[in-house]
Structure formats: structure tokens, C-alpha cells
Design a protein that fits this description.
Length: 342
Amino acid sequence: MLIHQKHIRSFCFALSGSIFLLALQTVWLHHAYKSEHQQMMNSIHDAFHQAYQKEQTYRIPVVDIVNPGAITIESCGNEEILIIRKCPEPDTIVYNNISGHSIESFLSNVFVDLREQIVPLNIYCLADLFAGMLHDKDIPVSFFLERFDANTGKILDTSLLSGKKQPETASENIIISQISEKEAIRAILQITPGTVLARMTGILVFTFCMFSITLMFIILLYRSQRTQPCNHGKDVIQSIEIQNDTFRIGQYHFDPAKNELAGFGECIQLNKKENSILYALCMKQGNVVERNVLIEENWGSLGMIYSRSLDTYLTTLRKYLKKDPSVQIITVKGVGYKLVYG
């Protein structure tokens, strides 16, 4: 079967539209994935901060650190402050704000450091609290904690089970919190794409529905382009099918080997010249067949004497085909004839 250029254009339009739609959906899903991942990380940051605050409270209250006679605070003018914790000699500790931190930041770091010296941070307790916070926020991620030296990076303590290999993780899945000027703690998270996608159920359903609706629209548009003729002031030629040396012309079936034109419940037996002229028009597939060519092929002469005979045969063929208004033999003035279907 011969495929008309119009069908090819419709197919290319549908294909390009589908590819563009798929690319657009991919970009949108990538953006939605990144946004959902960031929102989840923000929630995990909050959970980690809350767990650390609870661990500090459970470990030892601040009131037990700052007690009468144990700590004295001396002002040296401007932003400089001395905090002295009196312990049995030679364990007296003096904190001097010589690094230029604000008073609030300096005091906070001192109290954290004092707390660490009295009762060190329990990394397993912190891990349990963190896991509970994640459960409350419905964030199903695996993790382990590491306490390390902020200056050298040396690991001081870890919640990872002994002998278990540390899994690799992306840098954006690591949370680091400064405990003091000397120490910090980090949470290494194992976040899989499935964890993020599970939180995107609504977005995925909406995206799938929009993709399906748009794809269906493209398919319907493609089918309408194939089935509906379009006229812009010129004849639109549809395909004349060729099957086993026979032709399908609209509602007619033409068998040149048997000199038969069948359609609308009847079979017309064509004579030799009717059969030859119709065959020449079908082979040109809607293009012009020159008048002189038809005369020469059927009468072997270009003489004017056969010109009227050709007109007679063409009139007869038009009568045979008139039951299907979409099939026409059109005269191209001064050139010849063409068979159009459309």
C-alpha cells in the first residue's frame, strides 16, 4: 500500500508531540524530585536538632552545671568575658572569649563544653531519639551517627555496629552539627530514590493523568488528520491503493488484468482503451498524464483525428466513477488529465 505524504506528516506530528511531551514530563518530574528531596532534608534537619536538644536535656540539666560556687563569670570590658569553673586543683577550667564571638554564642559553647566534661554525649541515646523523631515525621530513612574532631576529622565515636562497613552516601545526605569548638557530630543518611518517590504519590498520579490525557489528545488529533480531508483551494490527493496489481480507488476496485471496475454492487467490464486509460491515470497517483501520451499509447498517433475519441472515453470513465463523488478525473487545461481521490 502506498502511503500519502499527508499521513507521513500526521505521523511525524504525533511522534514529535509525544517526544516533546515525554521530555517536558521528565524535566518536571526531575524538578519535583529535587524539591521533594530538599523538603525531606529540611524535615530531617529539624528532627536531628530536636533529638540533640532532647539528648542534652536528658544527659544533664543546665541548672546542675551552673551552681553556686562552681562557676564564676568575670567581665574584662567590651566583649571579653572570663568563665571560671572551680574544680579540685589542678582541674580548674578558664574560658576566655578571645576569639571575638558574641556573648550569646560564647556562653552557649561554654555550657555545651561543660556539659560534655561532666557527662559525655551518648551517641546511642541520640540515635534512638533521632529515630523516634523521624518516625513521628513519617520519614523512613536509615542512618548512623559519628562524633568526630572538628579540627582533624578523626572519628571519636560512632553508632555504627562494630565490624559493619560504612555505606557510601551522597554529600547532600549528610547532616553536620557543631557540638563545641573542638567536636562535631554528623548523621549519615541512606536515602534511596524510592523513599523520595513514595512521598511524591500525589505528584506522580497527577503527572500520569496529564500525560495520558495529552497523549490521547495527540492520538485523536493524528487520527483526525488521517481521516478528514483538508482543502486549501487545491485538490487534496489521497492514496490510491495498489494490492496485487489491482487498484483501490475510493469505493471502486479496479483490476486491469481482467478489465474490470467493480463498486457499489456492480462490476463494469471495460474495453481495451478504457482499461488502458484508467490504468495510466492510476499509475500516476494523482499526477498529470499528458494528453498526447494517452493518444500515442492507445492509438499510436498524435493526429487530431483521435483527440475526440479520447474525450469520449474520458467521458465514459467519468460516468463509471460518478457514484463516488470523492473520485474525479480532472482536466488540466493544455496539459492533460489526472485522477484524484479526496
